[in-house]
Amino acid sequence: MNSNNIPNRATLPILKQLIAIYKMWHEIMPSLAKTSRYTLGEKIDNFFLAVIELVHTASFLSKEQKQPYLQNAAVKIDLLKFFLQITWEIRAIDTKKYITLSELLDEIGRMLGGWIRQLTVPPGSSRAAMK
Question: What is the mean pLDDT of the chain?
Answer without folding.
Answer: 89
